[in-house]
Write a structure and sequence with these properties.
Length: about 525
């Protein structure tokens, strides 16, 4: 309901879009409730002149590696529960390319895992996507290194690492050379979460196997491969396993993302050196009173737990409204009457005070937020600087923030509270990375800039599904420019339409037939 109504069962809609200034890996997914957990896929953009024009040696093969979830729950029920203050649903397992892997045992025997067959000495381009709902992952392959070459369809200055940190919504392109002694090696993805006192949840690692083709060398396992790997038992056929980082080690993600810098000669757009508008957006949890009820301050005062940006928890448009993009094009009152999203938080305090994480009188002073469909307008061509500031209110988690319709220049990141007086000096204005999803570190901040040059209505949200469903989102509206090319085109003829009572409504999912009506609530 930001850009369109959902595509109805047994209906179809064809998307048409231009590809410009992008090469590499993106992905597509559903944006209704939690359905993207299973409705997603890779979208690969190759150079116009073929693989020979990559800014790195042409790989032997290119392989998508999609990290995802496996759910035993109904995903509509999961979304409904989270929107109504119930957070007991978690994925039953993690997957790599749709395979559970042998860490998961469903029927008394280990499940099959994805197998990547490689030839000794060959180079492979792994296009890694985190399609999961809840977790950032650390990815390693025993006995091998990654050379990171791109992220979010933007080339980066290559750097070598033994671990990839990838949050939901992100993509990372990395070269892997099959240069280990012939054998089998585990590729392991471990979900991360913040340490105590944050709530600890059930999380599942998963693993695939890198198998050297047509070779077998007894005794050539862990000792020969070197590094941090280990065998699980004395069996030449058992893959070598990597030593994985601790799930609470958030610094690995901080330094991995801090290593990203761009290849300037491969990016047509210049780095915006000055900002026309500046915003500070705080990210955190809070509470509101349940609809139609009064409550005292605090989630223990019968309030409902929500997520917010600048103390506003996003209220999605209902199916009874016009989608915001259509409302913007036709200049209807729906969008003009919406409140303006603020440039700054309503109050300034020590946002990263760890004393705000546990429930109690201290966090209750700052946890109250409001619920609204707030939007912010930008003139076409404006350079907008946004500092995303994480808070410690009821949690200290990182937040992968995604902006639709634009790439952002990541100027700097840091821990603690953003301080413009000193932190502006750390801005990288020479070769900053371009990203569509930026990871705001635990108890820290990230500063970005984007050029508002794509007219339309654009969702801005955390890519952790629980935060998005809880309201950590807003809408940026980019106004038309002065030319036809910079003007929002009309909706296509086959744009989805439906009546509110027939489909998705705020409190449930309805399906009507001629003879029966079934509701899911």
């Amino acid at each position: 309901m930001i850009t369109q109504r959902p595509i109805l069962p047994n209906h179809n809609f064809t998307y048409r879009f231009n590809v410009s200034e992008q090469e590499g890996t993106l992905w597509w997914h559903a944006h209704v409730s939690c359905l993207r957990a299973t409705l997603h896929g890779a979208l690969i953009i190759r150079p116009r002149h073929g693989a020979a024009s990559y800014p790195f040696p042409k790989p032997h093969k290119e392989i998508p590696i999609i990290i995802g979830d496996w759910w035993q729950n109904d995903l509509r029920r999961v979304a409904w529960n989270m929107a109504h203050d119930s957070f007991g649903d978690y994925p039953s397992a993690s997957t790599i390319n749709g395979k559970l892997g042998d860490l998961f045992n469903c029927s008394g025997t280990p499940e099959d895992g994805y197998e990547l067959h490689v030839e000794p000495g060959k180079t492979y381009l792994l296009r890694v996507i985190n399609a999961g709902l809840f977790f950032e992952f650390y990815l390693k392959i025993a006995g091998h290194k990654f050379k990171v070459v791109a992220s979010d369809t933007n080339y980066v200055s290559p750097f070598t690492t033994d671990v990839i940190a990838i949050a939901p919504g992100e993509t990372v392109d990395a070269l892997v050379v099959a240069d280990a002694p012939p054998g089998k090696y585990y590729m392991v993805a471990v979900p991360t979460q913040p340490p105590l006192p944050d709530p600890q949840v059930e999380a599942h690692a998963t693993r695939a196997i890198v198998q050297y083709s047509n070779t077998h060398s007894p005794g050539s396992g862990a000792a020969a491969a070197g590094g941090d790997q280990s065998r699980e038992e004395d069996d030449d056929d058992v893959p070598v396993a990597p030593q994985m980082p601790d799930e609470h080690d958030t610094l690995i993600s901080f330094y991995f993302h801090g290593n990203l810098t761009s290849l300037p000669h491969r990016r047509p757009s210049p780095v915006p050196l000055r900002a026309d508008e500046r915003m500070l957006i705080t990210l955190g949890l809070g509470s509101i009173c349940r609809r139609g009820q009064s409550c005292t301050t605090g989630v223990h005062g019968k309030g409902m737990l929500v997520a917010s940006m600048n103390n506003i928890s996003f209220e999605p448009p209902t199916m009874r409204m016009t989608p915001l993009l259509e409302a913007e094009y036709y200049h209807t009152g729906d969008i003009d009457a919406m409140p303006e999203f603020p440039k700054w938080p309503p109050r300034v305090f020590n946002f990263t005070d760890r004393g705000l994480t546990p429930w109690g009188p201290k966090e209750m002073e700052v946890e109250r937020v409001s619920k609204d469909t707030a939007v912010r307008r930008f003139r076409h061509g404006a350079v907008v600087e946004v500092v995303f500031q994480n808070t410690a209110i009821l949690q200290s988690d990182s937040n992968p923030m995604h902006l639709h319709g634009h790439d952002m220049v990541v100027l700097a990141q840091g821990h603690g509270n953003y301080n413009a007086t000193k932190d502006v000096a750390s801005y990288n204005l020479v070769n900053p990375p371009w990203k569509n999803t930026v990871v705001v570190p635990n108890l820290g901040w990230v500063a970005v800039r984007f050029v508002a040059n794509n007219p339309g209505v654009w969702f801005v949200h955390c890519h952790f599904e629980f935060h998005l469903t809880m309201g950590m989102a807003t809408v940026f509206i980019v106004e038309n420019g002065s030319t036809v090319e910079t003007t929002l085109p009309p909706p296509p003829e086959n744009f989805p339409t439906c009546a509110a009572e027939d489909n998705l409504v705020p409190d449930g999912f309805y399906i009507k037939t001629e003879k029966t009506e079934a509701s899911y609530k």
